[in-house]
Amino acid sequence: MNPSGGAAFGQYTAENIGNPFAIVLDNQVISAPVIQAHIAGGSGIITGNFSVEESTRLAILLRAGALPAEIVVLEQRTVGPELGADSIRSGVIASIVGLVLIVVFMLAPMVVVCLVAFTPENTLAMPWNGLSLRWFGRLI
Questions:
Q1: Is 106 exposed, middle or buried (0-12, 13-18, 19+ CB in 10 A)?
Q2: What's this model's pTM, rounded to 2 decimal places?
Q3: Which whole-number Å values give the CA distances from 28 to 23, 32, 44, 58, 111, in the listed order?
Q4: Domain locations in the chain as residue ranges
């Protein structure tokens, strides 16, 4: 509670000593203690004839800020070890494909540069006078 809320709460409790103060969560009253004294600062003590279970339940509800809700299971699945093995297999395949693509994209510009360098127009400028062009031509 912020300071202005604590001040408003303190003023309300000072004006309503002897009256019940309902604690409502999710439109349900979970406790209705009687205000016995001015509660300054926004925190107070709830007293009464509570059992241990009731006081524990009330404390949990006040800390949680919501009433307990039922859990409705809509779907339930069992996952076996095959799912983990499939994930590992998929990861290995993706890694290999990625590595091959990286190598291809790294080598592709070099191949293009070599093809341009070994064109017949450029072989005369080479010191070996086309010797490598004939050798490279046999490879293609």
A1: exposed
A2: 0.38
A3: 8, 11, 21, 13, 76
A4: 3-64, 81-139
* Residue 55 vs residues 47, 50, 58, 61, 71: alpha-carbon distances, Å: 10, 6, 5, 10, 24
Task: Give dist(CA 58, CA 82) in Å, integer.
Answer: 46
- CATH class given for the domain over 3-64: alpha beta
* Distance separating alpha carbons of residues 133 and 114, to the nearest angstrom: 10
State the sign of the Cα–Cα–Cα–Cα dihedral 50, 56, 57, 63: positive
Q: What is the pLDDT of residue 126?
A: 52
Type of residue found at 116: V
Q: Which residue has the tokens 């949680």?
A: 64
- Residue 75, classed as helix, strand or coil, is coil
Angle ∠(66,72,73) on CA atoms, nearest 5: 135
- Give 67-114 pLDDT, tens digit per residue: 556 778 888 887 777 778 888 899 999 999 999 999 999 998 888 888
| Per-residue pLDDT tens over the stretch 123-140 | 555 555 545 555 555 555
